[in-house]
Specification:
Layout (H helix, E strand, L loop, with lengths): L4 E5 L7 H13 L3 E6 L5 H9 L5 H19 L6 H23 L3 H25 L4 E4 L18 H16 L3 E5 L2 E3 L5 E3 L5 H11 L4 E6 L20 E3 H9 L10 H6 L4 E5 L7 E5 L8 E17 L8 H11 L4 E6 L3 E6 L13 H10 E16 L8 H8 L5 E6 L5 E7 L3 H13 L3
Parallel strand pairs: 1-2, 1-7, 2-4, 3-4, 7-9, 8-10
Antiparallel strand pairs: 5-6, 9-10, 11-13, 11-14, 12-13, 14-16, 15-16
The structure holds adenosine-5'-diphosphate (ADP), aspartic acid (ASP) and magnesium ion.
Length: 451
């Protein structure tokens, strides 16, 4: 293990000149921080996704481009030497404009990745210049040299061996004499085409980089001082958790706690790298440590909410021929690379939800070709407008009265599907999106607001 610490700053942490200087101060505060991974400035990725979806109206397109110019130049104009990076930023903005025009004729996932990568490519130029102007030897590094991925544009998977070799060859040597500022979220495939790891992917990038360079720690700096008992935007009385195990925090991330990209803790756990989550605006408030060993394992740890769920119910058409039904269903899904999340089964039917969405957003879709094949085998019903609520905790199945406490709280709601038993850390259910937030608030009040 090296002594290098990796620090990641999200979009709101690099939103403007003051915010970027706060990040610089946090980096300065820890001499071991040698790799700084950042997101695009707040709001930029959303604008780029909109352009990538194809904005046909030229006036509207130019308005979006102007917003991008304003966000970046309002920071650049406060630099001591703006001219050092002005050409680089203008070059990237020209590329955005060209790709946005192309997207009106022929949008594609590959083009989307080229476009959305421009956010991180710009923000890293600016933060690097700020670090230099504050007197630190700093280098901007194009992470696409190291972050090698599959070619699944919009939702690429990292190629761990390639990343490990490239990081040791290209990244580690620079860290000896400089602080490295690099991009989260983006990577490149084996043909050097730009890819992305899915929305919110910068956390995952930082963890993958930390793993590849055997970092001693990973800090995730965001807009809240740690991981809370639920999203504080949903329940204002939610409170930060001082310490949480990898297993619990992974479940939270998987089940929708936006604070961490779902895959973030996988590399950290593989290499047992402690993760700290804190607020770049108020670092003095401390934050949450995610570790292998923690002092307490409470029955209820947190509650999460994930919107945009797609539920598919498959019913065998002829129950006498039902043997091997599930095997056939999952073979078809695997052939079409459909990733399944939750499952419940009965003798002749199975309900399942589709896994998370890609960079373009929206609810995950069952590919038409997969649906057609499934329909030859069984009836297929697809439902949308559902949300997933998950209760995260420890050994819930071992404590008497747990089910009564949870479901008693939810007695006013119509639960569409319940999953429980496969993991000792979660109990989750689907319900209509119109009352999901309310259900989370009620559960939080009952289980976390009594102390
Ligand atoms: P960043 O841009 O820094 O990656 P995100 O917006 O992706 O930040 O994640 C931070 C946000 O995650 C918080 O502002 C908060 O609203 C939301 N969030 C959701 N669940 C939780 C939770 N359990 N604890 C803290 N924040 C949460
Ligand atoms: N900029 C990307 C997004 O908004 C990645 C990230 O911020 O983590 O999704
Ligand atoms: Mg995020």
């Amino acid at each position: 293990m090296s002594t290098i610490n990796v620090a990641k700053f999200g979009g709101t942490s690099v939103a403007n000149f003051e915010a970027m200087n706060r990040c610089a101060a946090i980096v300065e505060n820890n001499p071991h921080t040698k790799v700084v991974v950042i997101s695009a400035c707040s709001g930029v990725t959303n604008i780029l996704v909109e352009l990538a979806n194809g904005v046909a109206d030229q006036v509207q397109r130019e308005q979006l481009l102007k917003q991008l110019v304003d966000i970046h130049f309002s920071i650049i104009n406060q630099l001591k030497q703006p001219q050092t990076i002005t050409n680089d930023i203008n070059e990237i903005l020209t590329k955005v404009s060209q790709c946005a025009e192309k997207a009106t004729v022929e949008p594609s996932e590959q083009l989307t990745d080229q476009l959305v990568s421009c956010g991180e490519l710009m923000s890293t130029h600016i933060l690097c210049q700020i670090m230099c102007e504050r007197g630190h030897a700093t280098q901007r590094f194009d992470i696409r040299t190291v972050m090698k991925t599959t070619s699944v544009f919009g939702n690429a998977e990292p190629l761990l061996d390639e990343i490990s070799i490239a990081a040791k060859t290209h990244l580690v040597p620079i860290c000896k004499d400089s602080i490295v500022v690099t991009q989260g979220f983006i990577g490149s495939d084996l043909n050097n085409k730009t890819t992305t790891l899915g929305r919110g992917g910068s956390d995952y990038s930082a963890a993958l980089i930390a793993e590849a360079i055997s970092a001693s720690g990973l800090e995730i700096w965001t807009d809240v001082p740690g991981i809370y008992t639920t999203d504080p935007r949903i329940a204002p009385k939610a409170h930060p958790i001082k310490e949480i195990s990898f297993a619990e925090a992974s479940e939270m991330a998987n089940f929708g706690a936006k604070i961490l990209h779902p895959s973030t803790l996988v590399p950290a756990l593989r290499h047992k790298i402690p993760v700290f989550v804190g607020s770049s605006k108020e670092p003095q408030l401390g934050g949450t440590w995610v570790k292998q060993e923690v002092e307490s394992a409470p029955l209820f740890r947190a509650v999460t909410l994930r919107g945009n769920q797609t539920l598919i119910t498959l019913k065998s058409l002829n129950m006498f021929q039902a043997s091997g039904f599930l095997a056939k269903v999952f073979t078809i899904l695997a052939q079409h690379k459909v990733s399944v999340d939750l499952i419940t089964t009965s003798e002749i039917s199975v309900s399942l939800t589709l896994d998370r969405t890609n960079t373009q957003g929206g609810s995950p879709k069952l590919p038409p070709a997969a649906q057609k094949e499934l329909e030859e085998l069984c009836s297929v019903v697809v439902e949308h407008n559902l949300s997933l609520v998950a209760l995260i905790g420890n050994e819930m199945g071992q404590a008497k009265g747990t089910a009564k406490q949870i479901f008693g709280t939810l007695e006013d709601y119509n639960l569409r599907m319940i999953c429980y038993g496969a993991s000792c850390h979660n109990l989750c259910f689907l319900l209509h999106e119109s009352y999901a937030r309310h259900a989370v608030q009620q559960l939080h009040r009952e289980l976390f607001e009594h102390e």
